[in-house]
Design a protein that fits this description.
6-stranded mixed β-sheet, 2-enoyl-CoA Hydratase, Chain A, domain 1, Acyl-CoA Binding Protein, 2 domains, binds coenzyme A
């Protein structure tokens, strides 16, 4: 792709920047939500000017395309000649958005700028390759090697159960990974489990009242799942062992799921007085048919890796003895494929579903917020936390 200078990219939305004379002080952008207001959009346009570093050609093209789509709708320019590299790249980026609604383009623009603003403040931004060490925490490890950002559930003594802090760490990790120099992002777990799902003590250990914990939990869960719905690069799960709850339901939002034959897939929502999350109430019936989805989501049937493969939840199953070697060799090869092509293809696959997925996510979170306050759920959680210790 022809080099595109940053100053030139700034000129890609000149009319709006000139018309809206907003203060140049650092502006606060509201958190990403489903519907960015015109004011959010204008703030984002201004925020772009304040970025501390050049976000690179790819991101600039994306900003340009989203800006054009948000303000003018689908691409209406004649296709530039093949040797007019810069304009051809811009045209391609805009045209690739197809009939994306103006409102969605505006939202995506705001989200992209918001992620750039926060990631440009992160110390890891700007490095590349194996040198890069993204920010993580002791329970969520983030490493970067061979074009792959690896996010590891790292709480093996608790079977990698996800605490509120870990949800936040993952949201941030995905935000950074969406604009880092790596080609794909991979989730896996440390120890014998992939992940045992939501930490069931998240609510019992909350400091405020249970209503407040449920309400905060629902907002956090919605943001968490949104960051998977919107993740722009290939997203792969390397399921090294048993997976429970949200670590299973999320798999419907991944692009590929590789599992050890030791892995199992369990969503005991009814047993816990809860209901499905991570869009599984939509993705699972679509993927495996309503009857098989009901066995998992209503009756809590635990699937073996091969059963999960037969239902379309898992891409491929590997023998435990060769799992790590085979999967990582394959992923390193995939990470050498042209990144733009993969991103564009992913966007094509995902874009017609995005709005639906966001709506499903919002509804599931509202439902869960009520379930968390139900007697059925409170009793189930209390009986888990008060289990007799093993001798
Ligand atoms: N939330 C909180 N703590 C969890 C947890 C979870 N989801 N999953 C495991 N743990 C903790 C256990 O309490 C235990 O802690 P302790 O050593 O302080 O007692 C530790 O992890 C090891 O788990 P343990 O139950 O002893 O191991 P196991 O091999 O017998 O069973 C599980 C593993 C995952 C089957 C079992 O812990 C379990 O059912 N966890 C709950 C899973 C769940 O319902 N998740 C939510 C779905 S919506």
């Amino acid at each position: 792709m022809a080099a595109v200078t940053w100053s030139r990219a700034r000129c890609w939305c000149p009319s709006v920047l000139q018309v809206f004379r907003l203060p140049v002080a650092k502006l606060h952008l509201s958190r990403p939500t489903m519907r960015a207001s015109q004011q959010d959009f204008e703030n984002a346009l201004n925020q772009v000017k304040l970025l501390k570093k050049d976000p690179g050609n790819e991101v600039k093209l994306r900003l340009y395309a989203l800006y054009k789509q948000a303000t003018e709708g689908p691409c209406n320019m004649p296709k530039p000649g093949v040797f007019d590299f810069v304009n051809k790249a811009k045209w391609d980026a805009w045209n690739a958005l197809g009939s994306l609604p103006k409102e969605t383009a505006r939202q995506n623009y705001v989200d992209l700028v918001s992620s750039l603003s926060s990631s440009s403040e992160a110390p890891s931004q700007g490095k590349s390759g194996a040198d890069e060490k993204a920010q993580g925490s002791k329970d969520i490890l983030i490493t970067s090697e061979d074009g792959i950002t690896k996010i590891t559930f790292n709480r093996p003594t608790k079977k990698n159960a996800i605490t509120f802090q870990m949800y936040q760490d993952i949201i941030l990790a995905l935000k950074n990974a969406s604009t880092d120099n790596n080609i794909m992002t991979v989730f896996t777990g440390t120890g014998d489990y992939y992940c045992s799902g939501n930490d069931l003590t998240n609510f019992t250990s909350a400091t405020g009242g249970i209503e407040e914990a449920a309400s905060n939990g629902a907002v956090l869960l919605r943001d968490f799942v949104n960051s998977f719905i919107d993740f722009p690069k290939p997203l792969v799960a390397v399921v090294n062992g048993p997976a429970v709850g949200i670590s299973v339901t999320l798999l419907g939002l991944f692009d590929a799921v590789y599992a050890s034959d030791r892995a199992t897939f369990h969503t005991p929502f009814s047993q816990l007085g809860q209901s499905p999350e991570a869009c599984s109430s939509y993705t699972f019936p679509k993927m495996m048919g309503p009857a098989k989805a009901a066995e998992m989501l209503l009756f809590g049937k635990k699937l073996t890796a091969r059963e999960a493969w037969a239902q379309g939840l898992v891409t491929e199953v590997f023998p435990e003895s060769t799992f790590e070697t085979e999967v990582w060799t394959r992923l390193k090869t995939y990470a050498k494929l042209p990144p733009n092509s993969m991103k564009i293809s992913k966007e094509l696959i995902r874009k017609n579903e995005k709005e639906k997925l966001h709506a499903v996510n919002a509804e599931e979170c509202t439902t869960l917020q009520a379930r968390w306050l139900s007697e059925e759920c409170i009793n189930a959680i209390m009986s888990f936390v008060s289990r007799k210790p093993k001798l």
